[in-house]
Amino acid sequence: MTEQIIETPIESDEIEKILPHRYPFLLIDRVLAYTLEPEITLTALKNVSVNEPFFTGHFPGKPVMPGVLILESLAQACGMLAHIALATQADPGGIYYLVKIDNARFTRKVVPGDQLILEVTQTRILRGMGKYAARASVNGEVVASCELMCSSG
Q1: What is the CATH T-level fold of the domain 4-152, as seen in this structure?
Q2: Residue 58 is among the residues annotated as catalytic for this protein
Q3: Choosing from 30, 58, 108, 131, which is the catalytic residue?
Q4: What distance in Å separates the CA atoms of residue 119 and residue 132, rounded to the nearest whole number?
Q5: What pLDDT, on the 0 to 100 scale, is given for residue 153?
Q6: What are the two backbone dihedrals, phi and then psi, of residue 18, each rounded to the nearest 5 degrees?
Q7: pLDDT < 70: residue spans in the chain
Q8: Domain boundaries, the chain
Q9: Could you tell me the pTM of the whole model?
Q10: Measured between alpha carbons, how far is 117 from 132 in angstroms, rounded to an integer?
Q11: Residue 51: helix, strand or coil by DSSP?
Q12: Segments in the chain forming alpha helices (H)
């Protein structure tokens, strides 16, 4: 089985056609690549800007991206991957909801100016529920990892 890699980026206007999120809660700027064979994977990018609204209160003078928003970014990447993987079916489904997070680990702060690379791999899908291995990195260094479960709604 040959690996199928689609390198063409998916830009924000196309992302908005797939994900229901909008500013300030759309946390994916671009899909860099995805594969459908032999594994179902997706790599996305989140540019972390000092203008993000959450930096006003988290934390004044020492801005740090909240860990829950890093996890949400990964969940949105899972939603993109689910949509792409199911697009070949007659009914690709609606919104994908985050239903479970396991084994979340944070190993480094994410600060303004960072480019967050989001990598998700579908590990299982059963009855509209998808399980994903997910990790976020900055400059090749993993900053967060977890297992996510999402459900189509």
Answers
A1: Thiol Ester Dehydrase; Chain A (3.10.129)
A2: yes
A3: 58
A4: 10
A5: 72
A6: -105, -50
A7: 1-7, 88-93
A8: 4-152
A9: 0.92
A10: 16
A11: coil
A12: 12-18, 67-86
